[in-house]
């Protein structure tokens, strides 16, 4: 069984590639450059014969994935722009996310005759309703949709453009399967903030968003505890398992899953790091103090429902403390080596 993973060098994808290889799959990854291909292959020296990497420099190009999808049994589409430093919302965020997804599905429909399922990594961004704020009393689940429009996102701030890119790409994927009725089915995963130890090649000069988010608690750059915008989290290792299960479980076809462990806040992050005997004192000193014990998730903030993912995908979720401590320990190890 061969699985295609797009954006295979990223934070979530590298962990997912590791889970696929551990589960006995052969993996074909796509990346944007030969340097990313080399870095990814270096991560898996012991099983390199089961992992191949192809370079797809521009996923919006016509037929970009036509060759990559040939002979694969399932596809995990994880690649999507995830950065908050963009100048052009359409060119750098909306178009690659939406056209990349549509182009991939078109390639599978026309050249991927062996493919029975495509799993799309969407996001809580595609579920959240910003107009409701913290929405006390609401419990987010798979029925929630972000209805931000393309026109609005074109000129909005980068965060809104990202959130819109995920919502609109997911909607495009569902429209594709509804209208084209292809030979494969679709399963969609919507994770919120993803924490946990990075398995990919972290760049401290240009970190991916999740590494940046945790690293700033250890680097001394935070003067105070940041305010929490998104209150749900999941560990990257559980999300990787969810990707594997989403391609294996027959009932996952044509379903959307909220992949969430529970709620957290940045104050809780700071408190957990400072209380842990595992975190070296030199790093604890860098963690902002804020107001310990305050601003935790409570009745003033929406809740999250992960029951569908547990029931159908059969997955469990790591608790917040484990996720945060393991991410911090891995980042400290990488910082010490840099
Ligand atoms: P990373 O930045 O680590 O990975 C993103 C991947 O997408 C990289 O392989 C990157 O390639 C690729 N990519 C980015 N832009 C493009 C583009 N224009 N064309 C082709 N490939 C591109 O982020 P994550 O691993 O965190 O994110 C992976 C997926 O998970 C994304 O779809 C993201 O939206 C989603 N997600 C992430 C969450 C999180 O908290 N981390 C939460 C919810 C969803 P390159 O290395 O060349 O830039």
Strands ordered across the widest β-sheet: 3-2-1-4-5-7-10
List the ligand species: NADPH dihydro-nicotinamide-adenine-dinucleotide phosphate
Number of domains: 1
Quickly give the CATH architecture: 3-Layer(aba) Sandwich
**Beta-strand content bin:** 5-15%
The CATH class is identified as Alpha Beta
What is the fold-level CATH name, i.e. the topology?
Rossmann fold
Q: What percent of the residues sit in helical stretches (DSSP H or I)?
A: 40-55%
Give the mean pLDDT: 97
Tally of alpha and pi helices: 11
Number of strands: 12
Integer-rounded radius of gyration: 19 Å
Question: Which spans have pLDDT < 50 for at least 5 consecutive residues?
Answer: none
The CATH H-level superfamily is: NAD(P)-binding Rossmann-like Domain
Biggest sheet statistics: 7 strands, parallel
N- and C-termini, Cα separation: 37 Å
Shape: globular
Structural class by secondary-structure content: alpha/beta
Query: In sequence order, what are the helices and strands, one letter per element?
Result: EHEHEEHEEHHEEHEHEEHHEHH
Describe the fold and architecture.
The protein is an alpha/beta fold. It has 11 helices and 12 strands. The chain has one domain (2-195, 233-261, 302-318): 3-Layer(aba) Sandwich (Rossmann fold), CATH 3.40.50.720. The chain has helices at residues 11-22, 34-43, 89-111, 150-154, 158-180, 209-219, 236-248, 266-275, 281-284, 307-313, 320-337; strands at 2-6, 26-31, 51-55, 74-77, 117-121, 139-140, 185-190, 193-195, 232-235, 255-258, 262-263, 303-304. It has a 7-stranded parallel beta sheet, sandwiched between helices. Strands 8-9-11 form a 3-stranded mixed beta sheet. A two-stranded parallel sheet has the order 6-12. The longest helix is centred in the N-terminal third of the chain and has 23 residues, at 89-111. NADPH dihydro-nicotinamide-adenine-dinucleotide phosphate (NDP) is lined by residues 7, 9-13, 32, 36, 59, 78-82, 96, 100, 121, 123, 166, 191, 193-194, 208-210.
């Amino acid at each position: 069984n061969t699985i295609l993973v797009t954006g295979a060098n990223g934070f979530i994808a590298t962990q997912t590639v590791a889970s696929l290889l551990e589960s006995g799959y052969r993996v074909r990854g796509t990346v944007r450059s030969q340097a990313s291909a080399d870095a990814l292959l270096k991560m898996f020296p012991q099983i390199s014969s089961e992992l191949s990497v192809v370079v797809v420099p521009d996923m919006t190009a016509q037929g970009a994935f036509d060759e990559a999808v040939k002979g694969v049994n399932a596809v995990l589409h994880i690649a999507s722009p995830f950065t908050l430093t963009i100048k052009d919302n359409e060119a750098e965020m909306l178009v690659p996310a939406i056209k990349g997804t549509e182009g991939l599905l078109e390639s599978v429909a026309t050249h991927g005759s062996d493919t029975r399922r495509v799993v799309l990594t969407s996001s809580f961004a595609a579920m959240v309703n910003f107009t409701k704020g913290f929405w006390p009393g609401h419990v987010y689940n798979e029925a929630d949709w972000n209805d931000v429009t393309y026109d609005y996102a074109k000129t909005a701030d980068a965060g809104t453009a990202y959130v819109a890119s995920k919502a609109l790409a997911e909607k495009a994927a569902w429209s594709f399967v509804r209208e084209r009725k292809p030979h494969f089915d679709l399963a969609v995963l919507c994770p919120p903030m993803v924490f946990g130890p990075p398995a990919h090649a972290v760049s401290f000069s240009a970190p991916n968003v999740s590494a940046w988010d945790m690293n700033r608690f250890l680097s001394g750059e935070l003067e105070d505890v940041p305010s929490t915008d998104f209150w749900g989290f999941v560990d990257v290792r559980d999300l990787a398992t969810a990707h594997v299960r989403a391609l294996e479980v027959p009932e996952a076809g044509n379903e959307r899953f909220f992949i969430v462990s529970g709620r957290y806040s940045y104050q809780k992050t700071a408190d957990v790091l400072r209380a842990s005997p595992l975190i070296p004192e030199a790093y604890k000193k860098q963690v902002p103090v804020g107001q310990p014990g305050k601003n935790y998730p409570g009745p003033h903030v929406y809740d999250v429902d992960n029951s569908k993912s547990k029931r159908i995908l059969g997955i469990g979720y790591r608790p917040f403390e484990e996720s945060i401590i393991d991410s911090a320990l891995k980042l400290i190890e990488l910082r010490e080596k840099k």
